[in-house]
Amino acid sequence: MRHIGVVLLTALAATACTDSPAQDLPSAPPTVSAPATAAAQATALRADVVANGLQHGWDVGFLPDGSMLVTQRPGRLALVEGTPGGPDGPVNTVSTVAADFSDVLVTGEGGLMGMVVHPDFATSHLFTTCQTHQENGVAVDVRLVTWELSPDKRSAAKVRDLLTGLPVSAGGRHSGCRPQIAADGALLVGTGDTAEPDVAQDRHSLGGKVLRIDLNTGAPLPDNPFASSADPNEQRIYTYGHRNIQGVAVRPGTGQVFTAEHGPTFDDEVNLIRAGGNYGWDPSQGGTVDFYDESVPMTDLERFPDAVRPLWTSGEITEAICGAAFVSGPQWGPLDGRLAVVALKGQKMLLFTLDGSGAVTEVYLPPEFDDAYGRLRAVRSGPDGALYVTTSDGDDDKLLRVTPAA
Asked: Got the DSSP string for 213-267?
């Protein structure tokens, strides 16, 4: 499933982040084939299986002692412990963390999804998950839940519902919920529009948005773009007009935030997040239709001339891009600093080269990931500098540790 048309692309020029949501970009920027740098092509990658026996691993959190937590969409939490590498490769054990996920709505795309480990975990033992919530078998919402891991890491207890009321589809569609801690300590949350026509453009709904909230209370932050609104939901919104965000990544040293987003049958997007920005998805066509019209543009510049244009799109196909993380560390050589995005449908990894403003100048597809591991859901940069990737085929899914080959 290697799509040549999007293998190596020069993408859209972009301006540096400002307070204005508009960008001075062409209305239909071209995507042009370009050769990858010889250095990038010469950088071979190694992928080691550090855990197997998982089921739809959705996200990865790193603990101070080197162990990892992996959320699984059916409502299970795995603990991965062991040695990250050695002469014979990684040696790990996988166990289930006992926790009450009986209220998780496991249907379609919904279930136990994204997670973040709190920066003060060493003393607090706290982590926060995104999950679809049901009561008596009825879908209620998508919510953020904060948990405390026991000292022996064998169980977790719910501390609080950090934020409730994110919309949910009874069938679980577009439940995407990816949390990421920003450079300033704020909690960013990319959400899905639940396949409802008016949700993405509705600033009173938390769906189809990037939210920016306090990690400890769930409250909106006072410098958010709509902080003066009387509606607490609108106060929490950082950006809107999104379809189904699957990846959120913060660029080291800059604070720039990038998202990976599913398109319908075209135009998956990588976006640079700008406070207050409208990203132009409106399947309600301004409220003129009452059905979910997926033929509209992902970024509708006719209806929203000031919409923030994407940095890159997949064009006439979809890769179903998902998790996003930055490659970081001198051991990566010419790949250091690239944005890694993994794909479900495309079953590949894409490495984006960005200039200082965030514009994409090259996209490189490591051949080691060309249909080799199935559907790829999460990618996170670990404290050891490796990339950790989860597969999402539903049967014996894996956690991979990706490093430059020796």
From this structure: E-TTT-PBPTTSTTTT-S-HHHHHEEEE--SBEEEEEE-TTT--EEEEE--SSS-
